[in-house]
Amino acid sequence: MRSLWWDPAGPTLHLIDQRQLPGRLVVLELKTADAVAEAIRTMAVRGAPAIGAAAAFGLALAAAGTKAGRDVEAEVHRASARLRAARPTAVNLQWAIDECLRRSGPLTERGRAAALADAAQAMADEDVETNRTIGRHGAALLSDGDTVLHHCNTGALATVDYGTALGVIRTAHEQGKRLRVLVDETRPRLQGSRLTAWELEQYGIPYAIIADGAAGHMLQRGEVQAVLVGADRVAANGDVANKIGTYMLALAAHDNHVPFYCVVPTSTIDLVTPNGSAIPIEERDPAEVLDLVHQGQRAAPEGSQALNPAFDITPARLVTAFVTEAGVLHPPYPDTLAQVKSP
């Protein structure tokens, strides 16, 4: 099952509500661009490629829902602004909207709703093939018997299907390599223990969930042969914006001489952003930190304050290589990243 799919009869965008996993598999039916923007903002759909695909279909819903006598182009661009603002860090969101608008042509006729839907569907299908190619490139970096440490969720749920970093693990498993995965919980929203573990269960890949703070210990003990993460944006110099906790993981991997691979489609590479300091970091609701319940009781004292950055920046010097559909990229990253993005 894909994480999201389009029904032209509605028209309706169906997507798995990732807030409900692993307890329940719930599929949302979204019929407006505003509903798509809200699903992105509230993380019903998450993962850079997945929210990009959802936003592209959101444009088609905006065009299809334009009332007679209204300007289709104006409605679509208003929806574009709302979708772009839903989550600012992931560059795939911006890229997918721009690419869908480019492919569909001028938005001056009601028939453009179909053109937008066709463009979004083509991009969704391409995402799956891109991920499969990434998986083949990345699987070559893993050996039979390896233990891999994984942060957040980068599987089928984070993309249209198959996945990026988790897709590499999935490909290696399908090739017959016996792997074990250490799954960071990934606090505060627990994408690792809720989503990555759920996916690994479906694939039959052995895993163990660890607290984020245990990752350094496992690396120091020599129990990890590779660290795999995704990214929400890669700057022109190779700095990486990814789920909070990635920077500490990269430091521990570097200190213990364990390769740290960042697995991304080339659409996540943003040559307009020179380095990590220029990447906007989303600050989410402190309640995500404070509302944690432990053994039936609130974990934080009433009245506590919290900071909740959703992402951090890993400097390029800590990244062993980038795995993309164009191959495995090594330093110097300003050169190799630019090469795969050139027309």
Could you write a compact summary of the structure shown?
This protein is of the alpha/beta class. Helices cover 39% and strands 17% of the residues.
Low-confidence stretches: none
Radius of gyration: 20 Å
- Physical arrangement of strands within the biggest beta sheet: 6-5-4-7-10-15-16
Main β sheet profile:
7 strands, mixed
For the record, give the distance between the C-alpha atoms at the N and C termini, rounded to a whole number: 33 Å
What sort of overall outline do the alpha carbons produce when their principal axes are compared?
globular
Fraction of residues in β-strands: 15-25%
SSE pattern, N- to C-terminal = EEEHHHHHEHEHEHEEEHEEHEEEEEH
Structural class: alpha/beta
The whole-number mean of residue pLDDT values reads 94
The percent of residues in helical segments reads 25-40%
Count all strands and give the number: 16
Number of helices: 11
Spell out the blueprint of helices and strands:
Layout: E1 4-7, E2 12-16, E3 27-30, H1 33-41, H2 48-64, H3 72-86, H4 91-104, H5 112-139, E4 147-150, H6 165-174, E5 180-184, H7 191-203, E6 207-210, H8 215-220, E7 226-229, E8 233-235, E9 240-243, H9 246-255, E10 260-263, E11 269-270, H10 287-290, E12 293-294, E13 297-298, E14 311-314, E15 321-324, E16 327-329, H11 333-341
Parallel strand pairs: 4-5, 4-7, 5-6, 7-10, 8-11, 10-15
Antiparallel strand pairs: 1-2, 2-3, 8-9, 9-14, 12-13, 15-16
Helix pairs in contact: 1-2, 1-3, 2-3, 2-4, 2-5, 4-5, 5-6
